[in-house]
Write a structure and sequence with these properties.
By secondary structure, the protein is of the alpha/beta class. It contains ten helices and 14 strands.
Amino acid sequence: MDRLRLGIVGYGDAAVSFVTAAHFLKDWHPVAVGGRNMDKAAVFAKAYEVEPRTVEAMAGADDIDVIAVATPPGIHLQDTLKAILGGKHVLVEKPFALSLEDCDRMIEAAGRAGRLLMVGQTLRYYPGTMHLHRLITSGEFGRVLMIEDSQVLNYFGSKRTGWQLDPALSGGGVVMNPVIHFTDRFRYLAGSEVRSVRAVLGAARPGYRIEGHTQVFYTFDNRDLSATLTLSGYGQTNLDCTRVYLESGMLQLDFLDNRVSVFAGGAMLRSERPDPMPYGPGRLITGYVQQFVEFADTLRSGAVNRSDGASGRATVAACLAILESAARGVEVYPGP
């Protein structure tokens, strides 16, 4: 399998990131894009030099090996099942699905067909996050004690229209969109699964009924470890800061600046900036490129895939627990 030939279902932001990332890699070849509105697909296809095709045509095509599903989360199941039944390997944009039942159906279908199923949790594939993970696992500063994330972003921008405001398709507001990224990053950095969550959600943007801010407290199967997330989607400033507290040091990732700072003994020891664009211009698609690299490595050599269906399901379970915790005012345990 010299080149992996890619079809993309969808024509929004995620589809743009998929096709742009694939163009960076010599061993990937974007072939087609499609969806339910073939007029939009035709415009997208012309702009990115691919063919417009229906989902069914891509699933049955001999010149496509992998299908990337970039449609609204509420219809990931049907598009993914069509791709798998057509014999394709599948990369599904986050969130994997809006229910655990849908996650299970996709995982089971891929298993029966012997197809690779990966979930696009790109945040763990950015250079800053990967560098932070290397520092944690090096053991230089002992075991992890606590992790915290502070996030401020403009969630209610111009693109928050249409299906984005339909909970049946989007899952609601910030929880199933940015929060799912940060929850997955906690799982990756902690090296442990979420045991419980206690959350408060709020909707403070006039004219919108979806949630726009949250605070979440996480515990993990590693009982010595906890994490907190504070997120505002109202754009008061730009902030994406992760702090990891270890036995003999602290690590801080300023994601927007692509900077990892290392503290110990009451002082900053060093500040490190991994290459933010190892695959060429366009930092925002770097995570998409890196997940394509891992997808190909898994197919060709059997390398471990860190964001497979089971991992995507675990992150969905944690976020569904956040929604339940906020609604009921109690601590919730995601379970198996």
